Amino acid sequence: MIRALRAAALAAVLPLALAGQAAPRAAVTPAQRQASVERMLRQLTEAYGVSGHEGPVREVVQALLPKWAKAETDTAGNLWVRVGQGGAPVVFVAHMDEIGFEVTAIRADGQLELTALGGFFSSVYEGRPALVHTATGVVPGVFPPRDSVPNRRQPPVLRADVGTTSKAATARLGIAIGDRVSSPKSYQRLAGTRATGRSFDDRVGCVALLQALHELNPARLRHEVIFIFSVREETGLDGAQVVADALGTTPARVHAIDTFVSADGPAEPQAYAVAPLGQGPVIRALDNSAVAPPALTDSLRTLARLAGQPLQYGTTSGGNDGSTFLPWGVPDLAIGWPLRYSHSPAEVADLVDVAGLAVMVRLVAERW
């Protein structure tokens, strides 16, 4: 049965891939694509969007869409772009939110008690500047270092200090319970084609969708393709769940475009999740939320090979937005990009992989 499914999937993708190679299209050089994705990645990385407050990121995404693209925002805050028509739609989803904190209480001494939004080690924020995103603007502060005694591997409670000495003074700054807290960030280019910035997860995925839309030829689509820029992924895949429930059983498959947390680091064990940076995007064949169907994995690898696009595959940790479609019987074939130092202020990615991820999204949309 498995062999038959693989053969059928390969038979479906081979003619489309070969036919797609013959169709004329405006050429985009690798250098042009890399420059484009870097420009967009810088803008998106420097926009703030802690889970539940993705509005500023959504505005940047809308500004970066091609002029012909028509975007709609649903009641959850997800941004939808539909292209093509007919047939069962193929869905791509990348999330706009980033990890951060929420204010849960204002102490008598004016400091803010926080709860984490997303999974990460809170110790990486200790002793760093903080930003409190209020209804009226951004209030600067700091994440105080832990007390020297007792010494713990993780701080018991991470707080934010905005420089006040009373609860009333903090309230006068416009800070309220429920406000989001993050830290200052900026995009920085490293040696070669490497770059660093907080919230590459998943601004890289958003950039891949945007670049694919700019290169896409809608006339070549054989079915509808839906691009989703989702919200609240880090706090439980909540935005994608709204999309999955809205589409139900109609999609042919879903491709979550998200991080592949890689062991490609100088101190990482090499027995798991190895996907070297700079060697192309990665099929998330297995993670904590989904298993990619082998037949579809084989088809995607064939499509990439025929197009000359490097594509890795492997297993990693974490979940992906596409898994919310599984209860509806929709296959989830997630495609990632290798990332060092995930969910830290110093995430590192390679622009070669970002550009390659955009190529894969376009190939899947046009040829599969």
Description of the structure:
- By secondary structure, the protein is α+β, with helices and mostly antiparallel strands.
- The chain folds into two domains: 2-98 and 198-367, Zn peptidases (Aminopeptidase), CATH 3.40.630; 100-182, Elongation Factor Tu (Ef-tu), domain 3.
- The protein contains eight helices and 17 strands.
- The chain has helices spanning 2-22, 30-45, 55-64, 167-172, 200-215, 238-247, 294-307, 351-367, and strands at residues 71-73, 79-83, 90-95, 100-106, 112-117, 129-133, 138-142, 159-160, 180-182, 188-189, 194-196, 225-230, 253-261, 282-286, 312-315, 335-339, 348-350.
- The strands form three sheets. The chain has an eight-stranded mixed β-sheet, sandwiched between helices. A six-stranded antiparallel β-sheet has the order 7-6-9-4-5-8. A three-stranded antiparallel β-sheet has the order 10-11-17.
- Helix 7 (294-307) links the parallel strand 14 and strand 15.
- The longest helix is centred in the first third of the chain and has 21 residues, at 2-22.
- The chain is globular, with a radius of gyration of 21 Å.
